[in-house]
Amino acid sequence: AQTVTQSQPEMSVQEAETVTLSCTYDTSESDYYLFWYKQPPSRQMILVIRQEAYKQQNATENRFSVNFQKAAKSFSLKISDSQLGDAAMYFCAYRRGGFSGSARQLTFGSGTQLTVLP
Amino acid sequence: KAGVTQTPRYLIKTRGQQVTLSCSPISGHRSVSWYQQTPGQGLQFLFEYFSETQRNKGNFPGRFSGRQFSNSRSEMNVSTLELGDSALYLCASSLSGRAWETQYFGPGTRLLVL
Asked: Has residue A99 got a pLDDT over 90?
């Protein structure tokens, strides 16, 4: 079974600074997708960024970027120029490629609570 | 386009009762997934429906069931509620449930079992 590990339950960052959240995963699959979701106090899960395992280039979305190390099974999220609105719980998630069975579900890590200090 | 909606947003039930939660996906989305979120177990997959058929089920007891209607709206039912069923239940929709598709989440239904 696939597992996703987030070893940092809490992190804090000063406004305008950069922070990196860590995530490792375990899988024997070669075709999979990785995601970072943000869950603010409203509890609505919002997709931050995604990475296809077959792509070597790291995904970037504005101030958010990932460091995808396939061999090490590591998928960290870097937030640049942190803003107060970035404060939330961040979840790393994995999804197997394909069309059936467990390919149809996300496996989440335990989350990292990010605090942004003014 | 309206997002994923879930009703009700909050529920209080007592042990032994049953509950039904509803999820309306984004228009045009045919896949609906359900997740349970608790402080102890985190986010866990319950089941996924596509075109009225359950395509995948997580490791939950048979007290947890669901269904999907022809308009893609989905309901999940929990019978004989236990205290441990207190959780935030999240629904997510995507076009067809394929692995590369983004899943869009609703605001959740918070269930408290007393």
From this structure: no
CB-based contact A21:A11 (threshold 8 Å): yes
Residue B1 has pLDDT above 80, yes or no: no
Quote the minimal CA–CA distance from B37 to chain A in Å. Answer: 10
**Chain B residue numbers touching A102 (CB-CB < 8 A):** 56
Compute the C-alpha angle A8/A79/B90, nearest 5°: 65
Q: A49 to chain B: nearest residue by CA?
A: B102
Identify which of A20, A21, A37 has the alpha carbon closest to the alpha carbon of residue A94.
Answer: A37
Query: Taking CB atoms and an 8 Å limit, are B106 and A44 in contact across chains?
Result: yes
Q: Which amino acid is at B7?
A: T
* Contact predicate B93/B31, CB 8 Å: yes
pLDDT at A37 over 90: yes
pLDDT at position A72 is: 95
Cα–Cα distance, B37 to B22 (Å, whole number): 16
Q: Which of A30, A94, A95, A104 to mutate to test the interface with B (most CBs of B within 10 A)?
A: A104
Top pLDDT among B11 and A102 is at B11
Nearest CA to B52 among B33, B31, B34, B35? B31
| Burial annotation B22-37 (CB, 10 A radius, 16+ → b, else e) | ebbbbeebbbbbbbbb
List CB contacts (< 8 A) between B30 and chain A.
none
pLDDT beyond 80 at A89? yes
Predicted confidence at residue B97, as pLDDT, reads 84
